Amino acid sequence: MGGVNQNAPNPGAASVPPNRSTSLLTDMYELTMLQAALRDGTAHRQCTFEVFARRLPNERRYGVVAGTARVLRAVRDFVFTEDQLSHLEFLDEESKEFLRNYRFTGQIDGYREGDLYFPYSPLLTVRGTFAECVILETVILSIMNADSAIASAAARMVTAADGRPIIEMGSRRTHEYAAVTASRAAYLAGFTATSNLEASHRYGIPASGTAAHAWTLLHINEDGTPNEEAAFRSQIDSLGVDTTLLVDTYDITQGVKTAIEVAGPELGGVRIDSGDLGAVTRRVRRQLDDLGAHNTRIVVSSDLDEFAIAGLRGDPVDVYGVGTSVVTGSGAPTASMVYKLVEVDGHTVAKRSRGKGMTGGTKQAVRTYRSSGVAVEELVFPFGAEAPDTGHLSSTQLTVPLMRDGVAVDGLPSLEESRAYLADQLLTLPWEGLALSRDEPAIGTRFVGFPE
């Protein structure tokens, strides 16, 4: 599938088409800081910026790192065209000349896409001069905050579905291009398909969809009365008996009866988009079985989130369709990540504002595990130092190279590989870490080797 290759960036700034530039996906103050730094001589100090979250949204037990591949692509495409520069009238000529020649040439390390994270996990470290790193803040955060929020919510829904497929169908509930990247984040988290064709084309995600209520309503008799049978028959003629018929436009019981009369007992599925889904699906399953349609799947939608999905776990639902709640991060539309300066010319720096304290210095991290494979904690330690002794616990390196000298490292995982990696990581959480209720993070984050 052609779109999958977009998840393995092949940076080369000179080849970036002008209309692909990400450089104005930024805030004005980043460029005003750049101008002041060029004037006072601090622009070329060697710095480290770090992406982390102080807390998990809605007191969830874990977060999912998502958007890493998109970040690397955005950094590659962060170049300024003459048209863009002409718009930056508030900058002096020295600053414009710097931006005219700008290419990120620094280093990026961080957690793999699809990894889990917790408060203060050092998710991304960006190293280079102040000038080249500071102007990347907004584009990096806008990608990681949105994608991680959606992937984190979607992963909880996948857990609640307990192995049953979920289709992402939230395109009409968000910005048209946010819908595409939301589909990607949901698929990373374990959703099986998307209704969004641009997402399917761009990222190779399986597409899914049949018909809306408008299709059934379109089919009426000459006297204006509904003709549900004609709608079903036309859909079957076009798409075959393996299609899914939407049976709740009028009366669900009659809709199911008509669907099987038209398609026969080998009908692929029926979809229900309204009502008390638990009670309705139990009744529909009995009806389908009585009609001999034992293999006809029941697909449900209608404002589902992880809690509604969990509530339907004991009911005869075969496939879930999720829209609004996944593209809005199920009530947490941002992961609340920040991008902070933590080191300047080898010196540790840290913000100490009340409620926003942090540990300075360039960092890396490992995660420790019991012999059973269950995660215990994250250990964060200075970048370049040896990993701390974990005793009888095994450990894995969380911080890996992502970009060297402005070029993405070879062998970055594809979307499919990151998806499989996340599924494996979820299995390492303590059992309480998969609970949907609000509580403490599933594992703690401990800093080792930093000054008190």
Automatic annotation (TrEMBL):
Coiled-coil ranges (or none): none
Domain of life: Bacteria
Role description: Catalyzes the first step in the biosynthesis of NAD from nicotinic acid, the ATP-dependent synthesis of beta-nicotinate D-ribonucleotide from nicotinate and 5-phospho-D-ribose 1-phosphate.
Protein family (similarity comment): Belongs to the NAPRTase family.
Residue ranges annotated for the Nicotinate phosphoribosyltransferase N-terminal domain, each copy included: 24-145
One annotated GO molecular function: nicotinate phosphoribosyltransferase activity
Keyword Phosphoprotein annotated: yes
Keyword Transferase recorded: yes
GO cellular component, one term: cytosol
InterPro entries on file: Aldolase_TIM (IPR013785), N/Namide_PRibTrfase (IPR041525), NAPRTase_N (IPR040727), Nic_PRibTrfase-Fam (IPR007229), Nic_PRibTrfase_pncB (IPR006405), Nicotinate_pribotase-like_C (IPR036068)
Protein name: Nicotinate phosphoribosyltransferase
Modification(s) after translation: Transiently phosphorylated on a His residue during the reaction cycle. Phosphorylation strongly increases the affinity for substrates and increases the rate of nicotinate D-ribonucleotide production. Dephosphorylation regenerates the low-affinity form of the enzyme, leading to product release.
EC number(s) from the headed UniProt entry: 6.3.4.21
